[in-house]
Write a structure and sequence with these properties.
This protein is α+β, with helices and mostly antiparallel strands. The protein contains 3 helices and 5 strands. A hairpin with a 2-residue loop joins strand 3 and strand 4. Helix 1 packs antiparallel against helix 2.
Length: 108
């Protein structure tokens, strides 16, 4: 049975921001990148929902259950607590960003 992958409004906004950044140079490549990211992450988590690692920066926090998969230079953070039925993608962050600071804005 395939797991449903839900993208939260926060994650969708992160994707929009990534798209907008890339689209400053090319709408074509922005669309291609975002579609590729969504397809890759969805396929991976549908098939292997626990394939991502635990988020290292969150190990000693109340968010230590969150996991991540890497797509190019982005960390796709997800909540696997509703498995086997559902995985919720909660954020897409650049690997360069301070995740400790960003995680304080997540509504989990």
């Amino acid at each position: 049975m395939a797991t449903t992958i839900n993208w939260t409004p926060r994650a969708e906004n992160d994707l929009k921001n990534i798209y907008d950044y890339i689209a400053r140079d090319s709408d074509f490549y922005a669309t291609r990148f975002i579609n590729s990211m969504i397809n890759s992450v969805t396929n991976q988590l549908n098939t292997f929902p626990l394939s991502g690692r635990r988020v290292p920066e969150l190990e000693d926090t109340q968010l230590n259950f969150l996991r991540e998969v890497i797509y190019k230079a982005y960390r796709v953070i997800y909540d696997p607590t509703k498995l086997p039925l559902e995985v919720e993608v909660i954020a897409v962050q650049s690997a360069r960003m301070d995740l400790n600071k960003q995680s304080k804005t997540w509504n989990i």
